[in-house]
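dumping these here so i dont lose them again. two proteins, back to back, each one seq then structure tokens. dont judge the mess
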Amino acid sequence: MTGEILALTDQMAAGRIHKGWWNHQDLKKRFDAPQPIDRYWQWIDIDIEYEGRYLASEKVALVAGEGDPVQGAMLISVQPIVYEGVNYTPMELPVAAAEELLIDWEPD
């Protein structure tokens, strides 16, 4: 199986996560406690909050196959923060590096 790292658009979140992923035929109909923490996340409206302010961020998704549900998603800060006197720069996700990780990815 091959996959792509793509920008997670609102349309993709609504169709491929909210409707597609959580309603996929191979997914359990009910989950034992504790429930998956991301089960009811609203990917369209989700933000990163740090010390009472919202950080600039980007959403990315791992998509495996045309029209298939998103297999994973990530919200990445693109704004530096200072924590305990240290300036942390945002994590960058070069698509080429992410694609290299997919080469060795073996789904269960």
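---- next one ----
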Amino acid sequence: MKLNIQERLTITKLMPTAGDFLQQSIVKEILAKTEITPAEKEKIGFRIESLKGESLFRWDDIAYEKSVKFENIELTFLKDQAKSFDENKKITQENFVLIKKIRDAVI
């Protein structure tokens, strides 16, 4: 699955903060695969800016994408999270494109 920087930042917000051991192991693997590395940060001009006391993520290369290979169990977990967000009416404009991409992904 190709994910841009915004989607890789947003995917962290889809993850549960607590769960059983298996869930948290899957979360850890997903976050490791979608982490923005120091080399990537340098390549895209990633920085954190402050505006009125809020930290904002900024980067120059908005078209940059990374191809991420999720295992079946990870993709199933992401699909379950997307379904939960939909059922609980937690879909926002910020996460809409990512959730659609997850829902459309083939296991």
